[in-house]
Design a protein that fits this description.
The protein is mainly alpha-helical. The chain has a domain at 28-74. The protein is 71% helix and 0% strand. The chain has three helices and no strands. The chain is elongated and about 40 Å long.
Length: 82
């Protein structure tokens, strides 16, 4: 199975990293960051739930989903990213 370019793990990882930096720098509103993060998490959830997804990719997406959950928890507690 080939992975479409728009769902390659490095693109989603870059999205999470970009959000983390924007939050740290104060260049994005918390509400906007939460909305974007929610979209990334929904995408990751769909990908992880795909029964045809190879295990290696699933593991990578699950790791990214965990990173996104940690960022969301920090946003919810108003703790800036490290």
């Amino acid at each position: 199975m080939t992975t479409p370019k728009e769902t390659q793990p490095e693109h989603l990882e870059a999205a999470i990293d970009h959000l983390e930096q924007a939050i740290r720098n104060g260049s994005i509103a918390t509400g906007a960051a939460k909305g974007l993060l929610y979209s990334v998490m929904e995408t990751l959830g769909v990908l992880v739930g795909d029964p045809a997804l190879p295990d290696q990719l699933r593991d990578g997406y699950e790791g990214l989903l965990e990173s996104a959950r940690e960022l969301r928890a920090r946003l919810d507690s108003h703790t800036p990213p490290r």
